Amino acid sequence: MSMISEFKAFAMRGNVIDLAVGVVIGGAFGKIVTSLVDQIIMPPIGWLTGGIDFSSMKWVLKPGDDSDPKHKIAEVAIQYGAFINTLIQFIIIAFAIFMVVKAINKLSRKQEAAPAAPPADVALLTEIRDLLKNKP
């Protein structure tokens, strides 16, 4: 089997395609959550905290210097506000995934709980057995 046909067989398996679709949808979902946090959730939190913009919060370790255009020195800072935004995004994504998994588990439990009717041949054989048992 050639390398190309092996790769084609690998790439066309159901799990790989499902994973690819999941990654694409996950990326899009991540963008939605980022927008939700940055434009919907954080402005009211900033307003409640007195106009604090979390995304610009940072602890400057060494200030930048751009007084000399030939030798600009970049600022060195810990941007903990961006970390707070990312943490809130993670909590929202984790909660959304939890709710989806919970719903899937609930649906799968309903399917397992429903007793499956025996196949027609098994039901017929059971009926014949019961008739033979009751025969004198």
UniProtKB/TrEMBL annotation:
Checking InterPro entries in the record gives: Mechanosensitive_channel_CS (IPR019823), MS_channel (IPR001185), MSC/AndL (IPR037673), MscL_channel (IPR036019)
Which GO cellular component does the record give, naming just one? plasma membrane
The Gene Ontology terms for molecular function here are: mechanosensitive monoatomic ion channel activity
The transmembrane residues are 16-37, 77-101
Protein keywords: Cell inner membrane, Cell membrane, Ion channel, Ion transport, Membrane, Transmembrane, Transmembrane helix, Transport
Instruction: Note one Pfam family from the annotation.
Output: MscL
Predominant place of localization: membrane
Q: Specify the protein's topology with respect to the membrane.
A: Multi-pass membrane protein
Note the superkingdom of the native organism. Answer: Bacteria
Subcellular location, record wording: Cell inner membrane; Cell membrane
HAMAP family cross-referenced by the UniProt entry: MscL (MF_00115)
Quaternary structure note: Homopentamer.
| Assigned protein family | Belongs to the MscL family.
Q: What does this protein do?
A: Channel that opens in response to stretch forces in the membrane lipid bilayer. May participate in the regulation of osmotic pressure changes within the cell.
**Name the record gives this protein:** Large-conductance mechanosensitive channel
Provide the species name: Rhodanobacter denitrificans
Q: Which gene encodes it?
A: mscL
